[in-house]
Every structure is written in structure tokens, then in C-alpha cells.
Amino acid sequence: MARLDVKHLAVSYNGKNKILNDINLTIEDGELVSLLGPSGCGKTTTLRSIAGLIRSNQGQILVDGKDISRIPVYKRNFGMVFQSYALFPQLTVRENVAFGLKNQHIREPDLSSRVNEMLDIVGLLDYAARFPSQLSGGQQQRVSLARSLVTHPSLLLLDEPLSNLDAKLRVEMREMIREIQQRLKLTMLFVTHDQSECFAISDHVAVMNKGVIEQFDSSESIYHHPLTEFVAHFIGYENFFQVKKFLKNQKYLLDHNLEFTAADSSPNVISLTIRPEDIEIIEKETENSDNHNQLEGKILFSTYLGDSYRYQIDTPLGIVIAVSGTDKKYLSGQPIVLNFPSQKVLGLSK
Amino acid sequence: MTTNKHLLTKIIGIVTIVFLVFPLILIVVTSFGTEPTISFPIKGFTFAWYANIFSQDSFTQGFITSVVIALLASLASALVGLPAAYALTRGETKFSHFLESVFLAPVMVPEVVLGFSLYSSLVIYARFPLFLSLLFGHFLICMPYTIRLLIGGLEQFDSSIEEASWVLGTSRLSGFFKMVLPNISTSIISGFLLSFINSFNNIPVSVFLSGANVNMLPTSILNYLQNNYDPTVSAISTCLMLLTLIFMLMAEKKLGLKSLIN
Predict the structure, then answer these.
(1) Backbone conformation region of residue A127, classed left if phi is above 0, alpha if psi is from -120 to 50, else beta
(2) A158 within 8 A of A197, measured Cβ to Cβ
(3) What residue ranges do the domains of chain B occupy?
(4) Which chain B residues are within 8 Å of A51, Cβ to Cβ?
(5) Residue range A4-232 in CATH 1.10.220.30
(6) How far apart are CA B104 and CA B143, in angstroms?
């Protein structure tokens, strides 16, 4: 496996419409990086230009420091797993897996032993003689994975590999991919629009929007500290408060002359956000003298999530979503006070 | 109400089949008649008219020419149509739609006009050999069908299968032969069959581009009918029907008729 560096990659369509703009990305040897974003954000285009299926207009793609951006796709020695599986329908499972090895002029008995070993890893040794049309979706995707790994590629590219599978299988498959990736120390680039899938599997995540990478960071950092409104919104933050003015020392002025303290201190912050589960709900009776970082509100309605309740709360700053434990249930119409712990309130820039 | 509707559909179906099949049966029956003109019912039974087919040079010559032209024209349209259809479906040029219309245009032109324009330009003006002109005319008749079917086949073929073969170390050309061709073979064969049948049955273009030594079977039959009205024509029609039937049965066995109709 190898290290991948993408530097200032740009792709445009018909020389005008920019699809990708200045993409910079590094995948360390043996690391799994995800490209996360909504459809049309350019994540698949990024993957396809790295694979060599799309010609980039600018920038470099370096594998272990060597620029491969002008090397044709069939000489790059990458593996790729497609959303549609893309198995060769006229070939059996065994022939599908052996296909890349034959192109590398691997001969028997090496050929068979490597194919068998790979089919064993994905648990499909018993299905070797079948044709792809005789397999289920999950089995087909496992063949596709085996086919792309058997050639010992320097980089494995996965283009939404799980999106055609049902929910339970999706979790199973992503754990299997992660397990194989760690065991064989593979360098992988994984494209997905599913944020939970992405956090479950990745070392680093690049969140993309409109052809640029908005944030490239470790999974934990992205989850706990999104930098822009788009990233926060896409990974599940639901409460956004517009900032009218940056005061000083982490203090921001919001609508209705409310003053909030956040974890960040920057004049570039345009809104504040907090995860629904980080908001504390306090009963109105326990009158609190210190109303800093607090909002009065009224419960609109609640939904039961099993391990918690999720509330919609009407406040002067609009509807706020809060999640709290099941030890106490607040009723619709009940007046409450919301407390926003300042270390959990994040500042977002544009 | 529903049973009435059902009955009506049945009746319409039966009537349609009778009207379609009855004339064909009539032709088959009259081809065995002993009368010197085509008549029904027949008074005696003979194979004489079948023997007569082979005594007519224009029929045997016409049949050979027709088969050769149909084969060559279908083959040429497949060879030109395959790269064209591939470029039209895979290419990202702005002109794809325009080019597709150009390739499909010959269907819009009345065949009489096509035949006449080829006659005046190729035969009269450019003094092209008649056989080549005829072949070119039939190539133009076949190409739209071939390209239409190939485009259909290629659009249904998942292009990521081809891309997967590239990623695994197959060059573009080799990928085309290893992945694209085997997976659109149905479209290629049905395009070829449709072209062959169209070329073989064509009269308007053939009439203009026939001459002393170059005659197609349909034009030979037409010429024969102008002077004779004997059951030889019935006999040769029966032979052609039988040939088509064998052809279709083979296609059905190999591909299933549904795929032919697409």
C-alpha cells in the first residue's frame, strides 16, 4: 500500500463549469479517508479523477511522492469498488476475481491460490463457480471487494459501495471493510453521503460542498468541532443561531440583545451551534439568577427515541431541538429554561 | 361486462389473425395448383412451379445477389455502426444529439427518394459500378436500424463494468472487446438480423439501382409478374416464407423473440 497526496486538483467540464476546485487531500499509508458530502458535491468526481477515469485539468496526484496524474487508468494499479458492483456478468465469481491477476500475468498455481485466499477472506469460497446474477446484492459487493483487493493495489477506491444494500447489511459490510482494511493495512478512499457510515469507518474525513473541501480532519474533530455552517448542518447539528456581532473573549451578540459565550473566539463567526443532546433543560420553577447562555421557552411537542426524548421548543431565537434522558418527561406547553454550556456552543464561519 | 369485453378482444384477435394469415395460406396453396394462372381453389397438385423457379436464371441470380448484398450491407452497417454507437453513447461531445440524428436520418427519407438520388448521383453522375451503388444504398437502409439497436444495447450496459476492467489493468481497446462486445452481443445479432431482413425485402432502392447483370430477388419477382401470372411467384413466395420462418426460429432459440423486438 502507499501514501496518496492530492494537490490543487481541479476538474472542469467543457473548460468552463468547474466541478472541482483546488482539492487538497492526504491519505497516509494504511489509512482510511472518507469523502463526505451531498450528491453533486464533487466527491465521486474526485474519486474518479484519482482513479484516472476523469482527466483532471490542474493539479497533481502523487502516490508515494510520484506524480501519476498523466498515467492512464489501466497502468495505475489501483483497486476500485463501484456503487453498482460492476461485476463482469459473463464471467463466474472466480473468473471475476482472477481477471486483474491475469492482466498482471500471474500464472498458476499462484493465480488459484491468491483467488482462493481472497474469496476466503470475503467468505465466498463456496460461490466461486456461480455467475454474478446468481448472487445477492451483498454477495456481489463482496466479490467486487475481493476482485479489487486481489491485485494488491497501492490504493483502494470505494464509490458509495454500500448504498444499494439494506440497512442491516450495510452495517455488516462496513464493519467487514474496516476490519479488512485494518488487518491488511490498506490505504483507502471511501466516498459516501451517509455521515454515520463515514464516522464509523474512517480515520479522517473530508467534507465536500460544491466542488471544494470544506473541512478535512479526523472523524472525532469533524464530529465534535465542525468549522462551517455547511459541515455542521451536514453532520447533524440542528440548532443554529445567527450572530449579530462578535463582542470579545468568546462573547457574541445574538438577536433580542441576547449575549452568548461560545467555545471559540473569532470575528469570522457568523452563527453559533450546539448538539441537541448538549442542551440542558431546566424547569422554570428553579429560578436562576444567572441567565447567561440561557433561553426561556415552551415545549411544543416531543417524540420518544427509546433511550431519550426529543423536544421541539419554542424560544425567542426560533425553534430549538433538544434531546434529554428518559428520567424526566416534559409535557407539551410546559414553560422551561434551556441552558447552553459555553464549552459546547460552537462558533461557525461561512 | 368484463366477459363481453373479453369476448370482443377475442373476436378482434381472431379476425386479425385470419386476415393476416389467410392470404399467406392462399399463396402456399396456390403454389401447388396445376392451373397455368394463380387461382383458388386448386384443381390438381404439382411441384412443377417449384422446379420452374430454378429454371429462371433471374430468380437464382437474384437470390444470390440479394443474399450477398444483404450480408455485406448488414456487416458494413455493423462495422460502422458499432464505433458510431459507442461514440454517441460514451462520448461527451455537444454534437452527440446532432450526430445521432444524422445517422438515423435515412429512415426519414422516403426510400424512393433515396433510391432515385443514389441513382442520379452515384450511377449517372459519378459512374460508380452498379453493384457498389446497390451495396451503398442497402448500407444506408440498414445503418439506422443497426445504430438504433446498438445505442439501445449500449445504454443498457452499465459503463462501470467497462471502467472496472480498465482499473484492473485492461486497455480501452481490449476492454471494448472483452467487456462491451460480449455484453451487447444480443443487440449486435438483432441489429444484424433486422438489417438483413430489411435489405432482403427492399424494393424501392433496389429498383433504381438494378441493371442488366445486377438484379435483386424482389425486383426479379416484380419483373416476372409483369409478363407472367403463373404460380411460380406463389412457389417462390412460399420458399421465402419458409426461409424467414427458419431464420426466426433460429433467432428465437438463440435469443428469444422478445429481445429482437426490444
Answers:
(1) alpha
(2) no
(3) 57-261
(4) 167
(5) no
(6) 8
Share of chain A above pLDDT 90, in %: 53
Alpha carbons A296 and A314: distance in angstroms, whole number: 9
Q: Please tell me the distance in Å from A86's CA to the nearest CA on chain B.
A: 4
Report the residue of chain B nearest A98, measured CA to CA: B168
Neighbours of A90 (CB within 10 A): 15
pLDDT in tens, B182-229: 999 988 988 898 899 889 988 888 988 887 778 889 888 888 888 888
Q: What is the pLDDT of residues A181-201, one digit of tens each?
A: 999 899 999 999 998 899 989
If one counts every other C-beta atom within 10 angstroms of the C-beta of residue A51, the result is 21
Residue A203 has pLDDT above 60, yes or no: yes
Amino acid B257: pLDDT = 55
Rounded Cα gap, residues B119 and B132, in angstroms: 11
Reported as type and span, the H/E element at residue A308 is strand A308-315
Please give the Cα distance from A113 to B138 (Å, whole number).
54
For B182, the closest of A78, A90, A104 (CB atoms) is A90
CA distance linking residue B101 with residue A93, whole number of Å: 40
Asked if A74 lies within 8 A of B172 by C-beta distance, the reply is: yes
Whole-Å CA distances, A178 to A32, A183, B81 = 8, 9, 46
Interface of B to A at Cβ within 8 Å reads 94, 158, 160-161, 163-172, 175, 179, 182-183
The pLDDT, as a whole number, for residue A73 is 93
In this model, does residue A287 exceed pLDDT 70? no
Q: Which CATH architecture has domain A240-348?
A: Beta Barrel (2.40)
Chain A residues touching residue B175 (CB < 8 angstroms): 74
Q: Under CATH, domain B57-261 is a member of which superfamily?
A: MetI-like (1.10.3720.10)
pLDDT of residue A251: 82
C-alpha cell at A279: 442542551
Distance CA A22, CA A10 (A): 5
Task: Number of A to B CB contacts under 8 A, please give it.
Answer: 63
**Nearest-by-CA chain A residue for B179:** A88
